[in-house]
Amino acid sequence: MRNGPLGDPLLEILQRGDRQTKFKNPGIFAQIYLTMAVTCERGFSCMKKVKSDWRSSLSTQHLTRLMFLTIEGPRMDTFDAKRAVLQW
């Protein structure tokens, strides 16, 4: 699996035994870069689904909340609405 344009060289830096002495800062960068989530891409994809032509007048706060629920919330096929209403 390819990790992007920097993925392979950064992976080599991480796999070297002497990276702590020779490549301290690039090693730290490599760890961060290779473990970054694809949250940004997921966010844009989610926004395209949530903010359709019919919903283009949503406030920023409302759009943010809907996107958060879509990305971080429970899946709709496993969500128990009755339990949520009773708890509310």
Can you walk me through this structure?
This protein is an all-alpha fold. Helix content is 65%, strand content 0%. The chain is elongated, with a radius of gyration of 20 Å.
Question: Which helices and strands, and how do they pair?
Answer:
Layout: H1 7-15, H2 19-22, H3 24-35, H4 39-50, H5 60-72, H6 81-87
Helix pairs in contact: 1-3, 4-5
Protein name: HAT C-terminal dimerisation domain-containing protein
Organism: Champsocephalus esox (pike icefish)
Oligomer: single chain
Helix proportion? 55-70%
Q: How many alpha or pi helices? A: 6
User: Alpha-carbon distance between the termini?
Assistant: 45 Å
Structural class: mainly alpha
Question: What is the tally of beta strands?
Answer: 0
The averaged pLDDT comes out at: 75
Strand content: under 5%
Largest sheet: none
Regions with little confidence, pLDDT below 50 for 5+ residues: none
Shape: elongated
| Rg on CA atoms, Å | 20 Å
Organism: Champsocephalus esox
Protein name: HAT C-terminal dimerisation domain-containing protein
Summarize the structure in short.
This protein has 88 residues and is mainly α.
For this entry, give a set of tags.
65% helix, HAT C-terminal dimerisation domain-containing protein, mainly alpha, 88 residues
